[in-house]
Amino acid sequence: MVYQAARLYDQGYAGGEYANAGKFLAAEAAFEACERAVLAHGGMGYAKEYHVERYLREAFIPRIAPVSREMIFNYIGERVLGLPKSY
Fold first, then answer.
1. Does domain 2-79 correspond to CATH entry 1.20.140.10?
2. Do the beta carbons of residue 49 and residue 35 sit within 8 Å?
3. Keyword Flavoprotein: yes or no (predicted)?
4. pTM of the shown model
């Protein structure tokens, strides 16, 4: 999805739905992978010497900045699905 968004942008397509969808999917995949790593380590998932807790903290960044998941949902709902503005 990220490569698709980049390819379309390079071709002059100015729509943000592909970029937003790519950001959403990449952020969710990173968070899920880190969450599973923490759960696999059990209580040691929070221990600094395994670095898993740092990866989980860093996986939160794309989910909240610069655009949150909810704002991505709003954008896609309005621009792609034609739903009314919800905020």
1. yes
2. no
3. yes
4. 0.83
